[in-house]
Queue: 2 jobs
Job 1
Amino acid sequence: MIFAPQNDKNLYKTLVEFGYAEYGSALEMLAASKRAESSKLKIGYINHALDEYRHSALIFKVLNNELKKNNGFFEKEFKFTPQNVLTKGYVDKNGFLIEKLSLKKFVEFIYSNEFLAKQSFENLIKRINDSKSLEILNEISKDEENHAHGAQEQHEDFSTSSLNQIMGEEDRHWGFAKLFYNKAFPNSSLSAAYKRETIKNKMRMFYFKNLRFLNKIFNPIINFFILIFGGVAILLNTSSSENKNLMSINSGSVL
Amino acid sequence: MFIGISAYFHDSSVALIDAEGSLIDFKKEEYFSRVKGDKSFPRLALQEMITKHNLSDSNISKVCFYEKPLKAWLTILKYSIKNNSLSNELTRNYFKNIWKSSIIFSYDLSKYLKVSNDKVLYSDHHLSHTLSGAYYNPDLPAVSIVIDGFGDDSSSSIHHIKSLQEITNVWSSDFPNSVGLFFTAITDYLGFSINEGEYKVMGLAAYGEPVFYKSLSETIYFKDGKLSLDSTYYDFMRSTTKSYSSKLSSLFNINERESNSSLDINSPNFKAYANIAASAQKIVEEILKDIFLFANKITGESHFIFSGGVAMNSVAINKLSKLDFISKIIIPPSPGDSGAAIGAAYYGFLQSNKNCLQNPFKVNIPHMLTPGLTSLADHNEDFFLINYERIADSEEIIDVASKLISENEIIATCYKNIETGPRALGHRSMICNAHSSIAVKKLNEEIKSRSKFRPVAPVILEEHAEKYFLLSDKIYDSYFYMGAVVEVKETKSIEAVVHIDNTSRIQLCKKDHILGKILKKLELSNIFVLANTSFNISSDPIVYSKEDAYLSIERMNIKFLLTESGIYKKINSST
C-alpha cells in the first residue's frame, strides 16, 4: 500500500508518493466499509478512511510549505490529481484489496503495510525536522486541530507536528489491525506476511529509483516499434464520415 | 436491454435502456471507485447494473461502446507521427499506453460480462453525443452540434437529424483544431486542473475584461466554414504534460499561475488572470455563435441539440439563446463523455428498432433527471445511529428539513437515485436558505472550501422563477438541471447566489421534487430560494452510497443528513 524511497534526494517527490499512498489507503478502507456487515466494523473502517484522507491532505500541505520555504516552483506533477492513485498503482483498477483477498489476508496486508508506513514516516520526519519546517507544521497542526481525533491524546509528545500526528495514527491503525488479527486468527503468525510485504515494498522502491535507467533501456525498443507499426498505422485508411448517414455505418467495425 | 459504455478518456460510465427505449439506469465508475474522473473500464458500475437488473446474455440485446476504438487511437497517433518526431513524448505515450486505451474494450468487457460477439456494437463518438441529446429531444427534424476536445477523428461536428434513422454528418473539424482543447489549455495556464477546472475559468471570466480577445482570436478562429487553431501557441498536440507553448505565454503580460496557490478576489494578479479567462470565454462564445449560424445555414434548421464537453459552458448557452435564428436548444443533462454512454445505449436500441424514427416515449425532462429502477432505499443505514440520532422519520422529512433551513442550517442529502449529470439537483446536494448571506457563505467557503469568485446555484419552484429571473423559452428545460445561467431581475433578497455579472446558474424544480416540496413548505417562512451545491469535497466524486455520505459529513463537519429514511443529526452537536 505504501512505499517511500527513504534515501531519495528528492523530498518533494517522496512527499507526493506518500500523499497518494495515504489516499489509496483511504479508498481501500472505504471500500472495505461497504462490504462490512456489522455497524461497528463499518464505522471502524470509515474512521480509518477518515484518518487516511486527512493524512493525504496534510502531506500535500507539507509539500506546499516545503516548496514555499525553498522557493521551489510547484511543478504540475506535484499537484494532487485523484486519478494518479490508479496510474501510480496505489489502488488496483482491477479490484480493491477487500475484493481480492480473504479477510485474513486483508488484515495481514493492513498490519504489514501500516507497520511499513510507520517506519517510513519516522524516516520522513527526520528529513524535514528543521526549525522552520516545524514552525510551518505547527501552523498546519492548528488548521487541522478541529479535525484531530483521539490519537493526539495518545501521542502528546508529538503534538507539535502534523506528521508526528499522522505517525501516531498509523501506529494506532497498526495496533488495531494486529489486535483484530490475533482475535480472529489466534493460531496464525503475521511474520510471514510482514516479510512478504517488506520484499514487495523493496522491489517497488527499486523500480522507483531506477525508473530513469529503465526508460533508457525501453525507450529505444518503443522507438523501434513506432518505426515499424507507425508506418503501418499511417497507411491504414480511416474512412471519413462526412456527408454519410451515421446510422448506416458499420456498427461492428472498430475503425 | 441495451447497455451503453463510455470509458478510457473521461469519466467512464454505463447506461441501461430497456426494450421500450427508456433509460432505466445510469452509473459512473467514480461513484463506486471514489476516484474523481475515473476513466478506467467501468467494471464496478457494470457489475452493479448486472446484479441489480439481473443482466445476462439472455436478456441483453446489445452492448454498445461509445466510440470506434481503433479510429480514436489512430487519429492522434497518425497526427503525431506526421507532425512530431518519432521520439516525441506524445507518440511514445500513445504506444506505451495502448493497453490503457479503448482498443482493449472488448477484452475488458469479456472479463465482466459474457455476451456473444454479434451483440457488441461500436458507435461513432460524436454520434453517441448526438444521440445522448436526441434521447431528451421531443421534436425532429433538428440539427445537432457536438463540440468537445476530440473524439474518434473530430473535435466538432454538425449532424443533421431528419429522423432517428437518418443522421447525416454535414460538417466536422479535425484534431487539433478544437475549441474544447483550446479552453482546456487556458484552464491549464490559469493553474486549474484539466478536465475539471474549466467551469472555474467560466466563473472567473465574469471578474475580468476580454482585453486579450483580439490577440487570442488569432490563435483560434472559425472562418469560411473552417475551424482553425494555430498550433504554434499550443502544445497539447506535442506534449503529454503541457498544453500551451511559450508563444501563448508571450501574448499575456503575466506568467502561468502556479497551481498550488489558491486564487481569490484578493489574490495578487487576480484581475490579470480574470482578464485571460474573460478573453477565452468570449472566444468560445463567438466561435459557438459562428458554428451555430453556419449549422443553421447549411441545414436550414433552427431547432438545435447541443452536446460535448463545451456544452457544459452554461454562460455561453445563455448567450446563444438570444440569437434570433435559434428557436430551441436541447442540452442533455450530461453533455460530456460520461453522458455519451446514454447515446451509445440509445444507438444500440435504434439499431435493433430500425422502424423507430421519432422518440418512442413522451419526453419530460424534469422527470428524467434521476433514472434508475433501483435506489439506495435497501441500503442499510443503521450504522449512522452509532454517532447520529434520527430526528425525523421518512414522513417528517419535509417538515423538519424546512424548519432547519428556516433556521439557516445546512443540510446534506443522500436521497434516492443519483442525478444523471454532473450537477447535484437535490438528491446528492448540500442546501441552505439562499436569502441568508451567512448560511450561503458558510456553505460555500467554510464547508465546501470554494473560492469566493465561484457562485452557488439557486433553486426555485418553477411557479416563482419569473419573479426573480429572466427566463428564455428556448432553453427552458435546461433550467431544471442548471444547464444555463440567467440574468437576475430581483437581486436584493438573494445576493448570496447572484454572480458578479448579475447572473445565476439557476435550477428550477417541480412541486413533486424533494426540493420542490421543501420550498413549498418554506413559503410560510417567506423563503422562496434555496442555495444548492454538490455533496462532495472538491477532490472527491459526488457522494453515492450511504457510507460515502457518512464519511463526507464527517470530513466536512456537517450536522444534518437527509436520506429517504429520515433526517440524521450528529449526537452532541448544538441546535
Note: The first strand of chain B starts at residue 2 and ends at 6.
Job 2
Amino acid sequence: MDLLRRIALALAAPVLAVVFALAVSSVFLLLADASPLEAYSSMWSYGTRSDSLISMVNRAVPLYISGLAVAIGFKMGLFNIGVEGQYRIAAVGAAAVGASVTLPPLLHVPLILVTAVVVGMAWVAIPAVLKVTRGVHEVISTIMMNAISVGLTAWLLANYLDRRSSETSLILSTGLIPESGRFPSLNPVLEWLGLELRTGSNLQGFVVIAALLGVAFYVVVWRTRFGYELRASGVNASAALVAGVNPKAMVLKTLFISGGLAGLVGMSQLLGFSYRYTTDFPVMYGFNGIAVALLGRNHPFGIALGALLFGFMDRSAQILDLEGIPKEIVVIMQGVIVISVVVAYELVRRYRQDQEQRAVTRELAATEGGAGAAAAA
Amino acid sequence: MTSPVESPPPPVTAVRAGFADQLAVLTRFQRALLLAMGGVFLLSVTRFVADTPELTSSGTSGAALRLGIPIGLAALGGLYAERSGVVNIGLEGMMILGTWFGAYGAWQFGPWWGIVLGLAGGAAGGLIHALATVTFGVDHIISGVAINILGAGVARYLSVINYDATTGGGATQSPQITTKIPLVDVPFLAGGDLFGWSTPDLFGWFEDSGWFLLADVGGILKGFTSNLSLFTLIAVALFPFTAWFLWRTRLGLRLRSVGENPTAAESLGIPVYRMKYLGVTISGAMAGLAGAFLAIVAANIYREGQTGGRGFIGLAAMIFGNWMPFGAAAGAGLFGFADALQLRSDAAIQALLLFVALLTGVFAVRAAIQRRVVPAALLAVTSAGFLTWFIVSDEVPRQFVQFTPHVVTLLVLGFASQRLRPPAADGQPYRKGESR
C-alpha cells in the first residue's frame, strides 16, 4: 500500500493542477461563448494525430533543454531567470559562426554547438561573478541581462550580421548555415520502423541530443560527488559549508552549467528548422522552461513530461482558430498550470507532513500506553 | 555593549572639518537637494559644451516625467510588497493587466473609470500573488513568474474576444481611447490659466533666455509644470503619500514590521498574513495604475507588449532607491530621462557620453580626495574612456540607450550593494506558528 500511496501522492499535484487549469480555462471559454467540451475534444483529436505528435516532440525539445538549464540551478537554490537572454545571444553567436565557415559535418555541427555553449556560459558569467564577488542576487542581475541581450542582439543583427536575401525584407537575418552544419532529420528512422508520415512532418534529430542531456543531467546530479554537493548546498547551505563544500565555487560551476545548457536551447530551431537567426526567432523558451522545470519537479523524467505537455498544448491549440475559438486560451491554461502546480505540491507536502506527524503521535501513544501498562503490571 | 555613560566624548578639536564631514551634518533631504543641483549643473555644462539644447529642454523633461511615472508607480508597487516581506517579480504581469483593463475601462466608460478598472485589474493580480505566497507558502519568484505568463495570456485572450469585432481594435490592440484626461499648466510658473486669466510663464522665460544654467533649470522645471495630466498629478502625489503612510502611520509601521521580522510582529499580536495581503494587493494596484497610465495617458490605446519590461525596470528602480519611496522616484526619473532622450534626439544621446564622463570624473576626484586609490583610478579610466568615445564617435546606437538603465542597475548593484538595505525578511516564506 505504501508504494501505491507514494505514487498516488506524487501524481496528485500535477493531476490536480491540470484539472484546475482546465476548470479555469472553461470559465474563460464560456466568457467567449465557446463550449469548453467541444474545444477540449477537438484539441485532443487534432493533437493526437501522428503529425501533431511529431510536432509536439519538436516543440518539446527546446522547452526540455531550457527546463534542464533552470532545474540545475533550482537543485542548489539558484534561480537562473536569464535562460531567456542566454539562449537568444547564444543562438545569434552560433548562427554567425555556423554560417561563416564550411567544414565536414562531423566538425561543423560540434563547432556550432560548442559556440552556443560558450556564448551561453559567457553571458551567465557576469551575473555569476557579480553574485560571488558582490553578493548581487542572480534574479535581478539575470533579468537585467535579459533586457541587455535583446538590445545587443538587435544591434549586432542590424550592424554586423545582417545577410538578408532582399533589401526589402523587413525581417533581419544572419547568413544561412550550409548543409554541413545542419542536424539530420529522424524521418528515415521512422520510415524504417514502418510509420506512415504525413507530408511536411519532420521529426528533428535534436531530440536525441535532448535525451542524452537528460541522461547526463541525471547522472551528474544523482550519481557524482559534484551532484551530491550541489543537492546538499540546495537543501542546507550552511551544513554543506561545514562539510567542506566551497559555496562560491558551487555557485560558479552550477551557473556555468546552467548557462551552457541554456546556450543549446535554440539549437534545435537553428540546426533543424530555420538554419539562420532572424528577428522573429522564437522567444519565451526561457520563461516557459521555468514552468516546465517546476512541473517536472527538477527531475529529468518529470521535466520531459512537462515539456511534452506544453508541446502538446501549443500544437493542439492550432486547431482552435479554425473553430473560431481564440487559441490564446492555451497561454492562460499554461499560466494557471504553473501557479496551481506549485500550490498543489505545497498542499501535498503539508498533507504528507501532517500524516507523518500523526503516524509519529500514534506510535508514541502506543509505546507510552504499552510502557504504562507494563509499569502497572 | 558599552553604556552611553562610559563612551568617550567625540574628539572635537582633533578633527579638521573637511567637506565630507560638513556633508555628513546635512539632513538626507538637503543632501538629495545638493546632489540634484550638482546633477543639473553637470547637465548644464554638457548642454553648453556639446551644444544640444534638447538635453535640458522642457520637451525632454516633460517626456522624462511621462515615461518615468509608470516606472515609478511600478517601483512603488515593488516597495509595498517588499516592505511587507514579499518579493514581487509579477509586477510586469500585473502591469499588463493594468494596461488592458485601463484601456477597456477608458474605452467603454471614460478615462477615470479606466484608471479605476486598471487599478482593480492589477490588484486582482496582486491578490493571486498574495494567495499563492502568503496562504500557500509558494516561492515568491515562482509565483511571480507564473503571474507574468498569466497576465500576458489573459490580456491577449480578452483582446481577441473583446476587440476583434471593433474598428481599430484587434487581437493585439484596443480601439483608440477618444476622451482624454484634462491637461493643466501650473499657474505663475508655467503660464497656466487661473479663473480664465492667463498667468505669466516664469519657467518658459528662463528656458527661452538661453543663458547658461538658468535656461537649463527653467527648461527642466517647465517640463515638470506644464502639460500635466491630472493622472500625473495623482501619480506624483502617491510618492509622499507612501512615505507618510509607511513611515508615519500605525498601519504602515505594522506593514513594515512584517517585512523585517514577522515572528516578532506576530508575537506582538500583529496579523502577519493580513498585513502581507495588504502589502501585496496594494502592490498589484500600483502596478495596475502604472499600466493604466501607459494605456490612457501615454498612448491612448492598449497595445500588446506596451509594458516593455517596465515592471522589471520598476523593480530595479526600487532597488536603486534602496527600498525608499523618494529613492525609487529618483531611480524612475533617471530611467525615464534615458527613455525620453532616446525618443527625442540622437545628438542629446551622444552628449550623454560627455555627461557620463563628467560625472565619473567628479566621483574620481572625490575618491582621490578620500585617498581611495583603486576606485579613483577605475573611475578616472572610465571617465577618460567615455570622453574619448564622445570625441571620436558621431552617434550612439539607439539599442545601447535602450539598455542603458539595465547596465546602470547592474553597476549600482555591483558597486553599491553594501549600502543597500532590503527589508530583513524580504522574500522569505512565512508560516504562522513556525519558529525558525
Note: Chain A touches chain B at residues 28, 31-32, 79, 81, 126, 130, 134-136, 139-141, 143-145, 147-148, 150-152, 154-155, 158-159, 287-288, 290-291, 294, 326, 328-332, 334-336, 338-339, 342-343, 346-347 (CB under 8 Å).
